[in-house]
Amino acid sequence: MALTHRIKLFPVLALLTLGAIAPAATAFDHGHASYDQLLKQRVSDGWVDYAALKADSRPLRNYLNQLASVSEAEFRAWNEKERLAFLFNLYNAATLQLILDHYPVKSIKDIGGFFSGPWKQKVVRAFGRVFTLEHLEHEIIRKELNEPRAHFSLVCAAKGCPPLRSEAYVAKRLDEQLDDQGRIFMRQRDKNRVDAGSRTLYLSPIFKWFSGDFEAKSGSVLNFVKPYFSKAEQLALNGGEFSIRYTDYDWTLNSRSVTN
Description:
By secondary structure, this protein is mainly alpha-helical. It has a domain at 33-190. It has 13 helices and 7 strands. The protein has helices at residues 2-21, 33-42, 50-55, 58-68, 72-77, 80-102, 133-144, 150-153, 174-186, 206-209, 211-218, 221-225, 231-237; strands at 43-44, 47-48, 122-126, 129-132, 193-195, 200-203, 243-246. The strands form 3 sheets. It has a 3-stranded mixed beta sheet. A hairpin with a 2-residue loop joins strand 1 and strand 2 (47-48). The radius of gyration is 22 Å and the shape is globular. The protein starts with a helix and ends in a 14-residue tail after the last strand.
């Protein structure tokens, strides 16, 4: 009987002893400092210096390892803005890594085959699993979190995308960052513009592909996009009926040498 008690107690005593000497788990950095530094060095006005990232890929890999170490239980305990910032950064960082793994390429669409394109590659490591960018966007970000401004933040490494910010998304500034992204994207005239003369609203195909997300939030695509245009364009849009036409989507890689 005494031996049995000793056997039962040993794991408990051992755990108590180990707990006394083991260092405390490092809290997750919601400032995403290492990724923020990388973006400031390698991204300028939405252009990415993939050659420089390729030459020194360790910071990006280390950051992705940091994200991969977060358990689903830990993630679920965060507030919504912390979760969104994490997922936006995860998507964009995993996309950067996907490009580096195949660089040089002229377009992200050159990666993979007809039935296994870039968004079907299992490149995202999170919550103890490995899944695709497609799954991350559609089954997690869009399905679980009602934030259509996500379409301003998720960058597919193409010129037609909203620009990649030169900073990480962070929970404490997330609304400010997403609204700024909206204004920047909506005022890129090759993608979005108001033609008051012809009463035509030209929009990126993003607003066609994901129209349901914008309509669910604001009632219509027009209502959603209007606040992100200039005051003059908003006045024009308030002046009567506009038809919507969609601009061409440029899938060329958003690549350029960045000097800092």
